Amino acid sequence: MPPLLSTSHVTVRFAGLCALDDVGLELGQSEILGLIGPNGAGKTTLLNVLSGFQRPTTGEVEFDDRRITGWDVPRRARAGISRTFQDVGLFPHMTVLENCEAAVIGCGGKWAAAYTRASQALEWLDLVQYANVLARDLPYGIQRRVGMARGLTARPKVLLLDEPAAGLNDDESAAMARTVRRIHEEIGCGIIVIEHDVPVILGLCDRVHVLDHGVTLRVGTPDEIRADPEVVSAYLGAEAME
Ligand SMILES: Nc1ncnc2c1ncn2[C@@H]1O[C@H](COP(=O)(O)OP(=O)(O)OP(=O)(O)O)[C@@H](O)[C@H]1O
């Protein structure tokens, strides 16, 4: 079966800096793929290439058997590619429901559809009790869940998550991983998740893609990644694998 979303030979250069160098990534149909690597490895740049925020210098992006390299962000969103950001970026003076409705409107949806879709996303993420709370009044962990709900309002085929557990404590990170797993089971979308918490990623993902200095270091199952001496010595460290 062909991959749901993929890049081939993607290179991104910022002036003299090569942020990605000939990267081929594949997300299988209904797979959870982890994207890991040290700071500056190119993870967010790759997510930007997949979601349309960054045009690759060279290389191609394919989704659902179509070449989408030249598509802009709204077109990709309408086709079923949704993403969250490291900085949650909620509208602080709007309620949780309004933040989610705004995501639908922002992608060209109508108000009636916005309410239905936003309400559904809040149910998926157990956020119904916060629907009328202003975003600025929410604890950080809940704000991150709202960020994910916003990404789900589009009912995506692919959800791209940029460090969903950043800034969360261990219990909240574990809860976030359970939420990602539940989204995957209930909605059936493919998911790519960037995460620095290695045990979380190894426990959550079907496969893991390791980037280092813009280059693919390894792609494998969590067990293969755990057992790979080059990955461990490159940056993980023995204790990170426990
Ligand atoms: N718009 C930009 N202009 C110039 N350089 C950039 C730009 N975006 C990213 N970079 C550089 O590209 C490299 C890869 O950055 P990127 O943010 O993709 O890494 P990352 O793996 O997501 O890092 P982190 O884990 O710290 O978020 C870094 O050296 C970064 O400074």
TrEMBL record:
Q: Which SMART domains match?
A: AAA (SM00382)
Checking Pfam families in the record gives: ABC_tran, BCA_ABC_TP_C
Spell out the molecular function terms from Gene Ontology.
ATP binding; ATP hydrolysis activity
Specify whether Hydrolase is a keyword of the entry.
no
Query: Domain of life, per the record?
Result: Bacteria
Q: Which Gene3D superfamilies match?
A: P-loop containing nucleotide triphosphate hydrolases
Could you tell me the keywords of this UniProt record? Answer: ATP-binding, Nucleotide-binding, Transport
Question: What positions does the domain ABC transporter occupy?
Answer: 5-238
A single GO cellular-component term on record: plasma membrane
Classification via SUPFAM superfamilies: P-loop containing nucleoside triphosphate hydrolases
Q: Where is the signal peptide?
A: none
Official protein name in the record: ABC transporter ATP-binding protein
Taxonomic source organism? Actinomadura montaniterrae
